[in-house]
Amino acid sequence: MSRYDRLAHTPAVRRLQQEMGSAAAADRRRHAPGGDRPDPLTDTEAAFVRSLDGFLFATVNEDGWPYIQFRGGPPGFVHVLDAHTLGYLDVRGNRQYLTTGNLRGGDGRVALFFLDHARQARLKVFGRATAVPAAQDPALAERLGTPRTEGRVEQLVTVRVEAHAWNCPNHITPRFTERELADALNPVRDRLALLERENARLRAELAARTDPSKD
């Protein structure tokens, strides 16, 4: 069984799979490569994470309630520090500090959800996160500084990856950012401008040929 499935398929989940008739399919996944060691991030996962401008970050508070926060920035603001570690600079927001409080009040277990609507792809990550003041590690702060989200930097967040899995792309609605649309439409705009210039030239030639004053 993959490392991700070992963590996700708890006894309660297994019982429900039996109840709902999906245990056989889940059992087939038990033959997937994996083990008790943390999953390394391959070049594929690293490139995917670096390409995105945001992700969902889930923690659990001391009372057992889950909390999900969106973290956004320019593509590449989440850095792949090595095959097992992600990191980013956390900038000041609404100053509720719910995620940070959950990390400090628990054992740091988190779930990250990286979703790309345009490519209809998503990557799930289990890990253990820490958040420390930026002044505590200037070298890491500098490493995480390009690119980064605009705003006042408060913390350095690192996530030690335990496991990851690519999720089924079904039901991901294709959506595109302004940047993605601009990249796709720029060649069309260039072609349209060329055609407009050519059209103007031909109109001018036609007008000159049909102008009676030219006879």
TrEMBL record:
Residues 19-41 are annotated as: Disordered. InterPro entries: Pyridox_Oxase_N, Split_barrel_FMN-bd. Residues 42-142 form the Pyridoxamine 5'-phosphate oxidase N-terminal domain. Pfam families: PNPOx_N (PF01243). Gene3D superfamilies: Electron Transport, Fmn-binding Protein, Chain A. It comes from the Bacteria. This is Pyridoxamine 5'-phosphate oxidase N-terminal domain-containing protein. It comes from Kitasatospora setae (strain ATCC 33774 / DSM 43861 / JCM 3304 / KCC A-0304 / NBRC 14216 / KM-6054).
